[in-house]
Amino acid sequence: MTTITRIACIVTLLAASAAAGAQSGAYSGPSTQAAPSGYAGPSSVPLVTAKALLDSGKDDQYARLRGKLTGHKGGEDYEFSDASGKMTVEIDAKHFPAGVKIDQNTQVELVGEFDKETFGESTLEVKQIKVVGQ
Fold first, then answer.
1. Is residue 121 in some structural domain?
2. Predicted confidence (pLDDT) per residue in 72-130, tens digit
3. Do 37 and 26 form a contact (C-beta atoms < 8 A)?
4. Rounded CA gap, 113 and 125, in Å?
5. 97 in a domain, yes or no?
6. Which of 21, 27, 83, 94 is the most interior residue, by most CB within 10 Å?
7. Which residues of 99-127 are buried (b: 16+ CB within 10 A; e: fewer)?
């Protein structure tokens, strides 16, 4: 075996090993890259109500909402409801927890970036969903 062939074999083995290690994480659904392990501890992102966020939220602010997804409006848009009211949230399918059924009765906590619109509907672009109770 030539030196170049040996080096090629070693590089291939190292690349395969790195790829296998990079795929270990809390998310088990389809992905184009490795998912983070999934932090579940306390957050400094403030818990707010839908009404408070719509009334006084700032564009690009991170916020946490606790309530229910009460309807699918189409595409990535869902209706979120809590005791204060309703708002539209945008959720990319990759942010739903793998293997967890979420319906209109599931209590969830959403973390995301608020998109404040001067004209039109303001929304929360969801980055994380956590089921907090049934």
1. yes
2. 999 999 999 999 999 999 999 999 998 888 999 999 999 999 999 989 899 999 999 99
3. yes
4. 5
5. yes
6. 27
7. eeebeeeeebbbbbebbeeeeeebbbbbe
83-86 long-range Cβ contacts below 8 angstroms, 24+ apart: 83/49, 84/49, 84/50, 84/51, 84/52, 85/49, 85/50, 85/51, 85/54, 86/50
Rg of the chain, C-alpha, whole Å? 20
Q: Return the CATH number at 63.
A: 2.40.50.200
State how many domains the chain has.
1
Residue 112 lies in a domain: yes
Q: Mean pLDDT score of the chain, rounded to an integer? A: 79
Residues in the chain: 134
Q: Which residues contact 72 (CB under 8 A, 6 or more apart)?
A: 78, 79
Does the residue 94 lie in any domain?
Answer: yes
Collapsing DSSP states into helix, strand and coil, what is residue 20? helix
Q: Please determine, for residue 55, whether its predicted confidence score (pLDDT) is greater than 80.
A: yes
